[in-house]
Every structure is written in structure tokens, then in C-alpha cells.
Amino acid sequence: MSTPIRRRSRIAWIITPLIGIAATSPFAQVRTQQSSVNLALEGYSNITTAFADLDTAGDQFRDGDVRVDAALRGLARWSHPIGPDIGGRIAVEGSPEDKLDIAEASLLIFGRAWRLEIGTRQGLPDVLLGYAPNNFTFTGAEFGPASGPGLDPGGGLQTAFLQGWLAAQVHELAGLSFAASLSDDRSTKILYVSPKAQGWLAGASYAFNPADSRFRDLLQFGLTHDTYWGENVLHVGGSYSFARAEDRAGGTTLGETRRDLHSANIGATLVLDYDWMLGASVTYDGASGLASSDLIDRSESPAWGGIVSVNYKYGPWTAGAFVQRSRREGDVAQTGNDALTAFEAGLSYRVSTRLRRYGAWYAFQFDDEGGTRREDRHRGQIVLLGVRATL
Question: Would you call 363 exposed, middle or buried from its count of C-beta atoms within 10 A (0-12, 13-18, 19+)?
């Protein structure tokens, strides 16, 4: 195991004590209103440590390390008696990787029930305030942090303690089955959220220059429907991402090009008595993003992934688990596919509305290019423990 790496963000350590103090105050969220102007400030701090047992080549884990992820988010809204409301939103985040970072900043226009945003935001639209799940995802780990790197499939907190190429490979496959590819893209874009009518809600976004340098002109669409009866909800829908590949595939052989991105995700969430939450989702990417050539025969297996999850809430306790399977072509010049099988189970306890303790056990099997060689088969178990405080 490696010597613990103690890289931590200065802003995270500044934000964390402020949120810790606020978590014991009587205010869940800082709000103020002056005539037609409404201001709101919210924040969170997640402090997580992890321990691992890995069967893999090399030094791939920061054993016993502690990471702090924190953010402050502000929203201002100007109301007008005629015409749409105008608003602005900014999110400042701190993490070991990015240190101080203005992660999101956007201008908002509010219609009668719709919303238009222009600025730096994630892929398909999510909530402006609060920590509700994204409307266009269907599985999750309700026991984990509700924002920042999380314990959801593809949430990134599990792989944040891994290092090097293994972290990148596992994280990419873990996100494949959670949502349409590049759904978490943060770049300058235009976003639209429709009014909700008869249970239907739609969203769309466009980014000329997404964060993934392999692509441009990222278009994303999503549509969901909610059916209510008694204390039960059935949430179904899907999303689709399209992006044009750059003319040349970086780092590939002369004459090769990269395929455009076509990624589709469908899923469903069933909430029973507001206690049980059952979810399932599937993502299919086909040969998206792969290098292709007329000169050399290539191996091109379709990329896909699937997840099922279950969560249960009882008083201040939340328990849950998920299992996922993802596969995609790794090196197109070799036979065999990169494949991930992962399982997670966790538990959290809500000390108050603003303070929560959480823990999880994450186990994964990653086969590089089919895992035909011993050194290409990677197995691991990671135990994560943490605490979350919010304003």
C-alpha cells in the first residue's frame, strides 16, 4: 500500500468549519428577500476516509487517506410583475483534485413553469437548490452524500481513493450504466427544463465545447413521467446524448477517425410508501467514441451497462445496495473487452436535518481486455466511512 497522500483543498478546509457551525444553528438554509429580490445560500461538506483490500498489480490505493469535498452555492432571483423572472447561480467547490474551483455559474430565465439557463452547468438539468436526485437518473445509493462525489453507481467517491489508470478505468465503466454518457459534463451550455404537465417532464441541453476533448457539439435530451397512487410513485423515462467526434482521434494511427457519440439510457424507479425505493437502469453506447480505420481490422464490441438498486428508509436510518455490470471495448487493436462487476451496500444515520453519518462496502471485479492474463484481472474491496454537514 502507498503512503497516504495528504493533498487537501484549502477552500474545502475553509468551507468545512463554516458549514459545521451552521449545521448546529436553527437555519437549514440562508435566505433573504428584499422587495423583488430573493437570495439563497446553501453548502455542504463531506469528510470521507477509506480502507481497501486490493488484489491488483502496482500501488493503486491511498490507504487510510481522508478527503474533504465541500461547496457553497448561491442563487439570486429577481421577480417582475410582467415578463419572466431573471436569476443567477454560482457554485464554488473545493476538492483534493481541483482545490478552489468555480464549478458552476449561470444566468437563469424563469417562465411560468419552465426554466432556461446559460452558463457553466452539468449535462441534463438538475435542481437549482437542495439535494434531490437528478430527475434523469433512476438508481442510486440513498445512504450516501447527496451532492459532491457520492456513493451512487458512477458517483466517484469509491474510485476517488484509487490511483492512476485503475481509478480512471473503473470510474468510466461505473458511470456507463448509471446515465447516458456525458450526463455529468460540466461546460458552457444552454439548458432548458419544460413545465411539468400530467406527470411529464422534459429537459435538453447543448454544449459547443464539452469537457471531453474527444467530442464537440454535445446535445442531450431527457423525458420522464411520474405516476402517483396512494403513497407510491412510479418514475420512468430515459435520456439520450449525441456528440460529434473530432476529425482526428488524438493519439491514434494515421488514417484513423473517432466515431460519434450515441448514448441512450432508460430506467425506472418505484417508490413504495415513501420508504422503499427500487430502481433499474440500462445504458447502451454501441461503438461510440471508438477509433476506426479502413486500413486495419479492429475489434468493436458494443458498450453497455445495467444496474439494479434498492434503498429503505426507517426513521433516521437509510440502508441500501446496488449491483452493476458494465462492458466496453478497451483497445480496439486487441480482442477482449474491459468489464466491470460491482456491488455496494451501505448504511447512514441522520443525526439531524443537517448532519449525517454514512458508511459503505464496495466490491469490484475489473477485467482489462477480457482478463485473459493474471495481471489483467483486478479485484478489490473498499470500506468507506464519512460524515456530511449541510447549511
Answer: middle
Q: Which string of b and e fits 118-155 if b means at least 16 CB within 10 Å?
A: ebbbbbbbbebeeeebbbbbbbbbbbbbbbbbbbbbbb
Buried b (16+ CB within 10 A) or exposed e, 256-272: bbbbebbbbbbbbbbbe
CB 376 within 8 A of CB 370: yes
User: Please, what is the Cα angle at 283 between 279 and 288, to 5 degrees?
Assistant: 165
**All 3 cell numbers of residue 134?**
437528478
User: For all residues of the chain together, what is the average pLDDT?
Assistant: 84
Q: Are 2 and 63 in contact (CB under 8 A)?
A: yes
> Residue 329 and residue 303: Cα distance in Å, rounded?
7
Q: How far apart are CA 14 and CA 390, in angstroms?
A: 14
pLDDT in tens, 137-186: 999 999 999 989 999 998 999 988 887 788 888 988 998 889 999 988 99
Neighbours of 245 (CB within 10 A): 20
Burial class (CB in 10 A: 0-12, 13-18, 19+), 206: middle
Q: How far apart, in whole angstroms, are the C-alpha atoms of residue 263 and residue 247?
A: 19
Q: How confident is the model at residue 377 (pLDDT cuts 50, 70, 90)?
A: confident
pLDDT the model gives residue 391: 85
Question: What is the sign, positive or negative, of the torsion defined by CA atoms of 344, 349, 355, 359?
Answer: negative
Cβ contact 350:356 at 8 Å: yes
Instruction: Give pLDDT tens digits for 193-242.
Output: 999 999 999 999 999 999 988 899 999 999 999 999 999 999 999 999 99
